[in-house]
C-alpha cells in the first residue's frame, strides 16, 4: 500500500475534481478491492492512487474466494454474474463470460497475457487461487489498454503485495477423492523494497461419482464409486521482488511457475465416437515479467511491462482403459512447446484539466512448435506470429457527477513463420465509450457502455487440419463484436450493495464450419467434402445480470448473483450455440451466531444449457437437465489468526453435468485449516 506521502505526491498529478472523489468513494464501497493487491498488476484504474474497479470490471478478492473454497480460477470467477463454467473433452475447465469463450476473453496475470499461443485457450482448472489478491473480470467495456483480442472482455489475476514488515499465511486441506492441498505465502515490505513468495500444492486421486450415475448414462465406463483416470496434481510457485525508490516510482520483477499433471476421465455420453483414453504427463507454464511505474515531470507517468512466457505439454493417447499401450502414428504423443515474448509501454498524461489521457503500445511474439519426439517420421511444425497494437484512452471529467471514457486502438497480426502455408497479415480497429453518472447522494452510479471489439484467429484456427478431419484456412479474418450495456451499481437501500446490467452483443465474421470440396488426400478416404473454418457466422447475445449483498439482520447476510443469457446463431440456426446456461444463480446465506463461529449455506442453480455431441454423421444437440447444488460449511475461528472450516459440496449428491459425458463430483466432504501471521 502507498504511504501518505506517496498519495499526496501523486494526487498533485490530477485536477482536484469532485467527480473523481465521488467515483473513488463509490468504487471503494462497491468493488471488492483486496487489501494487499499488487497495484502495478492492475490494468484499468479509476481515480488512482486507489486501484478500484471501474464500471466495466468486477473484482473478487481473496477473502471471498477463500470463503467459498474456490481453489481454482475457474471455480472462483463462477461466483460472479455473467460468468459460467463448462468442461471440454480434454478435461479442461472453460470459462464463458456472457457467452464468449476463453479465446475471446483472454486471461492475464498482473496484466501479462497467459493464454496459449497455439489455440488461445487456457485450462482454468490448472491455475490455483491460493497466492492471488484478487481477480478482475472485464466485460463489454474492457479497457483497450489490455491489448488485442479482448472481443468479449478480459480476466486479470492480480497477485499479492505485502503491506507489513513481515506477513503471511499457511493452509492445509483434505477432501473426498484423496484430495490434498497445502499452501504458504510469505511477504516482507521494508519500505524501500518488498518481496512476496507463494507456494501451493493441489493433488487428488479421483473424485466421488454422484448417486445414480450408472443409471443415468447411456454407456458408462465407470462402474465404481469413484471416477476413473480423474487424478490431478498442480504445483505453483510465485515470486515477486519490488523496489520503491521514492514516493512515486515502483519497479517489480515477478516469476510464476505452474507444473501440472492430469488424467482425462473417459467420455460417458451419447456419442459413439467420443471415447478417448488420454493422459497429460505434464502441463507446465512459467512466466517471468518486469513491471515498472516512473513519474516523468509533474504531469506524466510511464508504465512498462516486459515478459517472457513458456508453455509446454504432452498428451499420451492409449488404446484402451488399461492405459498400458500407447497409440502410435504421427499424431501421438502430441507435444507442444510454445513461447511468448512481449511488452507494453503506457504513458499517462494529466496536463489537460479534467483529462486522464493514456497511450499504450503493445508488442507480442508467439512461437508454437508441434512435434513428436518418439516418431522420426513426424514433421516438426513451427509457427510464429507477431501482434502489435496502439491504443489511446481518455477519461474526461465532464462535470461534478459525469465522467466519460473514450478509447480507440489499431491492432495488427503478422504471420512471420508458417508450416507449409504462406505468411500473411491482418489488422483490426477497436473502440470503446463509457459514460458514468454519479447519482444524487453519491452512493450510486449509472453507466452506459458502447464498444467494438475484435479477435484475431489463432494459429490453430488458421492452420490445423484437426487430425485429418478439416481443411486449414490461413485467410480467416478477425471476429468482430459490437456491445451495448446499461447498468446501475451502488447502494439500492440500507444495508445493501448491488449491481444490475442489461447487455446486448452482435457478433459478425464469427468463425464457423463450412463444407467445401475435399482436395485429394484430405479429410479421409472416400470423402468428397471437407469441413473448413470460415468467417460466415453472425450471432447475438443479450441478457441481464443482477448481484446483491444484503445484511438481513445482525450477523445474518445474503449474497446473490443471477444471470440471464440468450444466445442465437443468426446466420445458421441449425448450428446452435452451446455450453452456456440461459439462467444461472449463485446464492449464499451466512450466519454468525458468535464471534468464533460462522455457518454458510450456498446454492448454485442453472437451467437452459445446450450441449453438442457427435451424432450419426452430423452434430447433434441436447438440453442438459437443470440442477440446483447445495453446499454447507462451518467456519471456526478459535483465534484471530487461525481458521478451521469443514463441510460438504453437492450436499444432496446430485448428478450434474456441464458438458455431455463429463459428470461433476458427487457429495464431497472437506476440511481446511488456515494460519495467518
TrEMBL record:
PANTHER family assigned: HEMOGLOBIN AND HEMOGLOBIN-HAPTOGLOBIN-BINDING PROTEIN 1-RELATED, TONB-DEPENDENT OUTER MEMBRANE RECEPTOR
Pfam families: Plug, TonB_dep_Rec_b-barrel
Protein name: Iron complex outermembrane recepter protein
Signal peptide extent: 1-34
Domain of life, per lineage: Bacteria
Membrane topology: Multi-pass membrane protein
GO biological process, alphabetically ordered: siderophore transmembrane transport
Domain TonB-dependent receptor-like beta-barrel, first and last residues per copy: 241-651
Main location class: membrane
Keywords per UniProt: Cell outer membrane, Membrane, Receptor, Signal, TonB box, Transmembrane, Transmembrane beta strand, Transport
Domain TonB-dependent receptor plug intervals: 53-154
MF annotations from Gene Ontology: siderophore uptake transmembrane transporter activity
Family: Belongs to the TonB-dependent receptor family.
InterPro entries associated with the record: Beta-barrel_TonB, Beta-barrel_TonB_sf, Plug_dom, Plug_dom_sf, TonB-dep_rcpt-like
UniProt subcellular location: Cell outer membrane
Gene Ontology terms: cellular component: cell outer membrane
Amino acid at each position: 500500500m502507498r504511504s501518505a506521502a506517496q498519495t499526496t505526491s501523486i494526487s498533485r498529478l490530477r485536477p482536484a475534481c469532485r467527480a473523481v472523489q465521488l467515483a473513488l468513494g463509490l468504487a471503494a464501497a462497491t468493488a471488492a478491492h483486496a487489501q494487499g493487491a499488487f497495484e502495478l498488476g492492475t490494468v484499468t484504474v479509476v481515480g488512482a492512487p486507489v486501484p478500484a474497479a471501474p464500471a466495466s470490471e468486477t473484482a473478487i478478492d481473496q477473502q471471498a474466494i477463500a470463503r467459498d473454497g474456490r481453489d481454482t480460477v475457474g471455480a472462483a470467477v463462477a461466483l460472479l454474474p455473467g460468468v459460467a463454467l463448462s468442461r471440454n473433452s480434454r478435461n479442461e475447465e472453460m470459462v464463458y463470460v456472457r457467452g464468449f469463450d476463453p479465446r475471446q476473453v483472454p486471461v492475464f496475470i498482473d496484466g501479462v497475457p497467459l493464454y496459449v499461443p497455439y489455440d488461445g485457450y487456457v485450462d482454468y482448472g490448472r491455475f490455483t487461487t491460493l497466492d492471488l489478491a484478487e481477480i478482475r473480470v472485464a466485460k463489454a467495456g474492457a479497457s483497450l489498454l489490455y491489448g488485442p483480442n479482448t472481443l468479449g472482455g478480459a480476466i486479470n489475476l492480480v497477485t499479492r503485495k505485502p503491506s507489513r514488515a513481515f506477513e503471511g499465511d499457511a493452509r492445509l486441506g483434505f477432501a473426498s477423492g484423496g484430495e490434498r492441498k497445502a499452501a504458504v505465502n510469505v511477504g516482507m515490505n521494508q519500505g524501500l523494497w518488498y518481496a512476496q513468495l507463494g507456494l501451493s500444492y493441489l493433488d487428488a486421486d479421483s473424485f466421488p461419482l454422484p448417486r445414480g450415475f450408472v443409471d443415468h448414462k447411456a454407456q458408462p465406463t465407470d462402474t465404481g464409486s469413484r471416477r476413473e483416470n480423474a487424478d490431478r496434481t498442480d504445483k505453483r510457485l510465485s515470486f515477486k521482488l519490488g523496489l520503491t525508490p521514492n514516493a512515486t516510482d515502483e519497479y517489480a520483477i515477478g516469476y510464476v511457475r505452474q507444473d501440472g499433471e492430469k488424467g482425462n476421465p473417459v467420455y460417458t455420453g451419447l456419442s459413439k465416437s467420443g471415447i478417448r483414453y488420454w493422459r497429460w504427463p505434464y502441463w507446465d507454464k512459467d512466466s517471468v515479467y518486469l513491471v515498472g511505474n516512473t513519474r516523468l515531470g509533474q504531469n506524466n507517468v510511464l508504465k512498462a511491462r516486459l515478459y517472457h512466457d513458456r508453455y509446454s505439454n504432452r498428451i499420451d493417447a492409449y488404446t484402451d482403459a488399461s492405459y498400458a499401450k500407447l497409440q502410435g502414428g504421427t499424431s501421438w504423443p502430441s507435444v507442444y512447446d510454445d513461447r511468448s515474448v512481449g511488452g507494453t509501454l503506457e504513458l499517462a498524461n494529466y496536463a489537460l484539466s479534467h483529462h486522464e489521457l493514456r497511450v499504450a503500445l503493445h508488442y507480442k511474439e508467439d512461437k508454437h512448435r508441434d512435434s513428436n519426439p518418439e516418431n522420426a517420421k513426424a514433421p516438426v511444425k513451427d509457427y510464429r506470429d507477431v501482434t502489435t497494437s496502439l491504443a489511446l484512452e481518455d477519461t474526461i471529467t465532464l462535470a461534478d457527477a459525469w465522467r466519460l471514457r473514450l478509447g480507440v486502438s489499431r491492432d495488427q497480426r503478422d504471420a512471420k513463420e508458417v508450416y507449409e502455408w504462406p505468411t500473411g497479415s491482418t489488422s483490426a480497429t477497436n473502440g470503446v465509450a463509457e459514460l458514468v453518472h454519479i447519482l444524487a447522494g453519491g452512493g450510486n452510479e449509472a453507466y452506459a457502455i458502447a464498444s467494438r471489439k475484435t479477435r484475431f484467429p489463432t494459429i490453430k484456427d488458421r492452420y490445423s487440419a484437426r487430425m485429418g478431419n478439416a481443411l486449414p484456412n490461413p485467410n480467416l479474418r478477425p471476429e468482430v463484436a459490437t456491445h451495448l450495456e446499461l447498468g446501475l451499481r451502488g447502494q439500492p437501500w440500507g444495508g445493501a450493495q448491488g449491481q444490475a446490467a442489461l447487455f446486448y452483443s452482435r457478433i459478425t465474421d464469427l468463425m464457423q464450419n463450412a463444407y467445401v470440396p475435399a482436395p485429394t488426400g484430405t479429410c479421409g478416404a472416400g470423402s468428397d467434402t471437407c469441413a473448413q473454418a470460415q468467417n460466415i457466422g453472425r450471432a447475438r447475445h443479450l441478457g441481464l445480470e443482477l448481484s446483491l449483498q444484503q445484511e438481513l439482520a445482525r450477523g445474518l447476510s445474503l449474497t446473490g448473483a443471477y444471470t440471464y443469457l440468450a444466445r442465437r446463431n443468426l446466420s445458421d440456426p441449425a448450428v446452435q450455440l452451446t455450453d452456456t446456461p440461459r439462467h444461472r444463480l449463485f446464492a449464499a446465506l451466512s450466519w454468525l451466531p458468535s464471534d468464533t463461529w460462522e455457518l454458510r449455506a450456498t446454492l448454485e442453480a442453472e437451467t437452459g444449457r445446450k450441449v453438442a455431441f457427435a451424432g450419426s454423421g452430423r452434430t447433434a444437440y441436447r438440453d442438459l437437465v437443470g440442477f440446483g447444488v447445495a453446499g454447507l460449511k462451518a467456519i471456526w475461528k478459535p483465534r484471530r489468526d487461525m481458521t478451521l472450516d469443514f463441510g460438504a459440496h453437492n450436499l444432496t449428491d446430485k448428478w450434474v453435468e456441464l458438458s455431455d459425458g463429463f459428470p461433476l463430483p458427487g457429495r464431497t466432504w472437506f476440511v481446511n485449516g488456515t494460519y495467518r501471521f
